[in-house]
Design brief:
mainly beta; 2 helices; disordered N terminus; single chain; 4% helix; 3 domains; four-stranded antiparallel β-sheet
Length: 466
């Protein structure tokens, strides 16, 4: 367990850029208005740092991990904002209030939406029963959204898991759903109730029984995680323990000062993340996408990542993205190379993604099935416009072309501002402030949800919500 020389060199290089100087970047006032950070940067010398330093009396204890950095410098040419995503205001029925991607063994994926009536509807790839329609059509793809069997009074949804108004957690499809004491994953065509205490949030990561399958939930007593512990997400690895062993739910110790009430987001990939109300985020697990320097691999101890002012996070296996003070950051798997062995830590730390305007929400995909660039993503701007970058071979960037988008391009054809965006390797969907959902890109498995299968589109198509 050691920090590689390459990552340490990068950390030292960051410190050497401004020796003895701290750059503080302030968010622009005025809600949706944005400004250039060049006009708001303040340079403080070493003698002034003590007076300018924030009160850390309630800060989490990070003394056990000398590799953690307090914050990453903001890009000096980027615009910043403290705006939040625009709310959804249903204009007509049917209306969606939340949008998520599904989980399964394929690379094309699908989507689910939480509807205003407390039900959940899914569409797209169904090879892992992730559409939740029962045994008779368990593995069928569908371009027509239909409600997941048996779910009512749902208040929270994440991938193929949902929480009802009583706090009960229900999951379907392929995942670590605590239905077996011997099998890491199970495939369930209809929702099953997880045997855990009432939960506020839940997130799972699963592809196949040979891959990492793990789940976590925020309950009244803290965070519970279960499943495989290959990446230390259930707890410190045990000497001699099998990497594929299945663990029952365990408490994950959080740093001092972290309470359940302070948690507002939970995300599980090859590393797990929790987002706190104060704009800081904790991570534990594999690197990438741990998002911070650590002397441990895997690192089972939740510690702050390299960003502050975080408003949203998305993680997909080995890749992660976040928005912080209106700036998009991404990190994770290394870029592909044909001539040399890729450095697994080349993109281990958050790197800014220049966007045309400040962004308030972000989504990413796993590197699996995405060979043209190491990562693709999309983000919602403060204006409600959506921007995408990365692989665009199927028109999934939404700019009306199939040209690779090496910088963020604006999605064309959305009839209203967006509140949220979610993306798979080949398709993208956006939840609009009207409660409608539009999708674009590949449609081989019905990912566009417009009732037509195997008919892709480079422009957004309305999803036919039930």
């Amino acid at each position: 367990m050691r920090i590689t020389r390459t990552l340490l060199e990068r950390q030292r290089a960051l410190s050497a850029l401004l020796p003895g100087v701290l750059v503080l970047s302030f968010a622009c006032a005025g809600g949706l208005a944005s400004c250039a950070s060049d006009d708001h940067d303040v340079l403080l010398g070493e003698e002034e740092l003590a007076d300018a330093a924030p009160d850390t009396s309630e800060a989490p204890d990070t003394s056990t991990d000398a590799g953690v950095l307090d914050a990453a410098p903001s890009p000096r040419d980027a615009a910043t904002s403290d705006a939040a995503p625009r709310p959804v205001e249903c204009t007509s029925e049917p209306c969606a209030t939340a949008l998520v991607t599904t989980l399964g063994t394929g690379t094309t994926g699908g989507f689910c939406a939480l509807l205003a009536d407390g039900t959940v509807a899914c569409w797209g790839q169904g090879t892992s029963a992730q559409l939740g329609r029962g045994a008779s059509v368990a593995l069928a793809d569908s371009a027509t959204p239909e409600r997941v069997v048996g779910l009512t009074d749902i208040v929270y949804v994440n991938h193929t898991c949902a929480i009802d108004k009583d706090g009960s957690t229900w999951c379907w499809g392929l995942g670590s759903f605590l239905q077996s004491t011997t099998a890491t994953t199970t495939r369930t065509p209809t929702p099953v109730k997880l045997p855990i205490p009432p939960a506020r949030m839940v997130s799972v990561r699963a592809t196949t029984t040979k891959d990492v399958a793990v789940g976590c939930a925020v309950v009244d007593t803290g965070i519970l995680c279960w499943g495989m512990n290959s990446y230390g997400q259930v707890g410190p690895p045990e000497v001699g323990a099998s990497a594929t062993a299945t663990y029952p739910p365990r408490d994950v110790p959080l740093p001092a000062g972290t309470t359940v009430a302070s948690l507002k987001g939970l995300f599980v990939g090859n590393a797990s993340f929790v987002l706190r109300e104060d704009g800081t985020a904790l991570s534990w697990g594999a690197s990438p996408p741990l998002g911070r320097v650590s002397s441990l691999f895997p690192d089972p101890h939740p510690r702050p990542i390299l960003l502050s002012g975080v408003s949203s996070i998305d993680v997909a296996n080995d890749n992660a993205c976040a928005t912080a003070s209106g700036i998009a950051y991404c990190w994770g798997s290394p870029p592909p190379t044909l001539t040399t062995i890729a450095d697994p830590l080349e993109r281990a730390l958050p790197e800014p993604v220049p966007t045309p305007e400040p962004v308030v929400q972000i989504a990413t995909t796993s590197a699996g099935g995405n060979t043209s660039v190491p990562q693709r993503g999309c983000a919602v701007g403060v204006s409600g416009d959506v921007y995408c970058w990365g692989n665009n071979a199927n028109g999934q960037a939404g700019d009306g072309t199939k040209d690779w988008a090496f910088t963020p391009v604006k999605v064309r054809g959305l009839p209203a501002p967006a509140s949220d965006v979610k993306t798979t390797s080949r398709s993208t969907c956006a939840l609009l402030t009207t409660g409608k959902i539009y999708c674009w890109g590949d449609n081989a498995n019905g990912q566009l949800g417009n009732g037509v299968i195997r008919d892709p589109s480079v422009v957004p198509q309305e999803v036919l919500l039930p």
